[in-house]
Design goal:
This protein has helices at residues 13-27, 42-50, 68-76, 106-111, 141-164, 174-193, 210-214, 238-242, and strands at 3-7, 32-36, 54-60, 87-94, 116-123, 168-169, 198-200, 220-223, 226-229, 248-250. It has 283 residues and is of the alpha/beta class.
Length: 283
């Protein structure tokens, strides 16, 4: 058996889960590859799918919903499943709960011939560091490590279920769907109306270009000696979290320095540039 896992990660949590899960599967005798959806075309995706017995998808939940890049990938790049023996696995990273955060994608996948045998939710550290958010965040390894230990335990269990061929789908019941809808419906309403929560503080911006380079939605463009954000934000939070001078504003407000630096991923070695196409360059 061989697995290919396509993932979208905003600030590194889902990247960590995806790479960890693939390593665990490989150690158990199932060669696995984790691929950022930002680095593949529809042609490359089809080629990778054709070599796999198990196709996995992973994403961070946004209001119990999928990030827009993952929705676009599933609709435009993921091919229909033409092999009845090939199965799908889904998992999402979340702060606390999402109801049906993984299985929410099952109906769209079923329409393309994909049968989901496994679905899991994995709690990870908070990456939402915007002004007004009540949730604590930290880059302290002592705060992050307990999350990673628990996450690895759940991913190890999921890998074991895959190896023995025992299906298990978290969030598949009506109660979980109801919990998901409580968050998803207001989120989708807000997302449909506004995607311009972020802006650039031109007085603070040094025009280093990192925000432009990291953006998965082509929402940032150079303007004079700074950058401008359009109305296509997907809320991945990379530009906000990784700006070296914290020049990205949320609803006109700058980052609250007294709360510490924004979340920089689950490991100090993580660099968000690793999620982007290698051809991306600052201009």
């Amino acid at each position: 058996m061989r697995c290919v896992l396509f993932y979208f990660s905003g600030t590194g949590n889902t990247w960590w889960c995806a790479t960890t899960f693939c390593r665990l599967l490989t150690e158990k005798g199932c060669p696995s590859q984790a691929v950022s959806i930002e680095q593949v075309t529809a042609t490359t995706t089809a080629r990778l799918v054709a070599t796999a017995d198990l196709v996995a998808l992973a994403w961070p939940v946004y209001g119990s919903d999928l990030p827009q890049p993952m929705k676009d990938f599933m609709a435009n790049d993921l091919p229909p499943n033409q092999n009845s023996q090939r199965r799908a696995l889904l998992f999402c990273s979340q702060l606390a709960f999402s109801g049906d955060g993984a299985m929410v994608a099952a109906p769209e996948l079923a329409a393309k011939g994909w049968e989901v045998d496994w679905a899991l939710h994995v709690n990870m550290p908070n990456n939402l560091c915007i002004p007004g958010s009540p949730f604590p965040f930290s880059n302290d390894p002592k705060h992050i490590l307990p999350y990673l230990k628990r996450a690895k335990k759940r991913l190890t269990w999921l890998a074991s279920m895959v190896i023995i061929g025992k299906p298990w789908r978290q969030g598949a019941g009506w109660f979980s769907r109801g919990l998901g809808l409580l968050q998803r419906l207001p989120y989708q309403k807000a997302f449909g109306k506004r995607r311009d929560y972020l802006a650039i503080d031109n007085a603070r911006c040094t025009a280093c270009g990192r925000c432009w380079r990291l953006c998965p939605a082509n929402n940032i463009r150079p303007v004079a000696s700074s950058y401008q954000l359009d109305n296509k934000c997907t809320f991945c939070m990379r530009c906000y979290n990784y700006c070296p001078v914290q020049a990205v504003l949320f609803e006109g407000k700058s980052h609250q320095v007294r709360r510490g630096a924004p979340y920089h991923g689950p490991e100090k070695t993580f660099q968000p540039e690793s999620l982007r196409p290698e051809t991306t360059d600052i201009k």
